[in-house]
Amino acid sequence: MTHLLEVVDIAKHYPSGKGAVKAVDGVSFTLERGETLALVGESGCGKSTTARLVLRLIERSRGTVRFNGEDITALSPGALRRFRRNAQIIFQDPYASLNPRLRVGEAIMEPMEVHGIGTPAERRKRMEELLGLVGLAPYHAARYPHEFSGGQRQRIGIARALAVQPELVVCDEPVSALDVSIQAQVVNLLKDLQARFGLSFLFIAHDLAVVKHMADRIAVMYLGRIVEVAQTNELFANPRHPYTRALLAAIPHPDPARRGHVKPLGGDLPSPLNPPPGCHFHTRCPFATEICRSQDPVATGGAHSVACHHADTLPPMGAAYEGHISEAARRRLARYAEASAARSLAG
Ligand code: ADP
Ligand code: MG
């Protein structure tokens, strides 16, 4: 069986003055049918550019994207139309992607019209079904986008994407602009629809917490490259790249005693215009050595792939950050050690 999606070493470089903005700089991954692969990383690391390259909304500087085994840059006009139908996108801000002058029902029927699906009556019937599927009602069809809340607008965006029965849905930060309570509802809706229709998701987020309960696998991106890929449980249990560890450490822990032990990642994401040589992460990495400053690390490949010169010798996650334990936490730990020593002497 071929992969639904196979991305091999894609890059997008934007010429800029003397150099180039390397928005995406050698990204490879696969996506299977019915799978959710999350693409996670800080704002500006190249997630949306990757999404656009995968959908061929922009042309690549290098690399290959295969959808159902076919190179999407070499499709005949008919095959390209089928690809456009089969691979849909949901945006972070559905308000920006919905035409404000189009009633919601029309917005959902539009992609069916574009692809010549059904008669007008069939399209209307399907549109009403879709409204039901995403938790809206038939009377919503006559309203305009501005009459809806952010969460409802995202439901409209989902209905519109599903109208043409795609295999792949690229979700570009679909919940990042929503309140936390609404985020969970939209994520659950997407999961339900996936189970029902066997959809495959490339799900983009800047936060690991959002994808923990949603993704089968997670790819962590840093400055135009993927630094680590693993099954979700494996990535959370055994993060191997220092950047992944920093992202995990940034997730607020429900237990206050376990908060604040890890120094958050210092410094800003460097500019993709002239990225640092060697490992792109070395300017912010607590473990960086000479080799990291001069040589690109090669991804190990396999089910848990990591691109780090020191991945095999890094201490376990807890110990790895010992040097970053705050002074207050260190004092607390010292008091605890004293108290338990005193107890054992007394006992
Ligand atoms: P993300 O979605 O992860 O926030 P993007 O893919 O939108 O990141 O952008 C990655 C980098 O590429 C950013 O530094 C951005 O400024 C730059 N970039 C994106 N599009 C363009 C463009 N059309 N021209 C020049 N630079 C761009
Ligand atoms: Mg983006």
UniProtKB/TrEMBL annotation:
Residues 5-248 form the ABC transporter domain. Coiled coil: none annotated. It comes from the Bacteria. It is a peripheral membrane protein. Keywords: ATP-binding, Nucleotide-binding, Transport. InterPro entries: AAA+_ATPase, ABC_transp_ATP-bind, ABC_transporter-like_ATP-bd, ABC_transporter-like_CS, Oligopep_ABC_C, P-loop_NTPase. Its main location: membrane. It is found in: Cell inner membrane. GO terms for biological process: peptide transport; transmembrane transport. Gene3D superfamilies: P-loop containing nucleotide triphosphate hydrolases (3.40.50.300). GO terms for molecular function: ATP binding; ATP hydrolysis activity. GO terms for cellular component: plasma membrane. Belongs to the ABC transporter superfamily. PANTHER family: D,D-DIPEPTIDE TRANSPORT ATP-BINDING PROTEIN DDPF-RELATED, TRANSPORT ATP-BINDING PROTEIN. This is ATP-binding cassette domain-containing protein. It comes from Rhodovarius crocodyli.
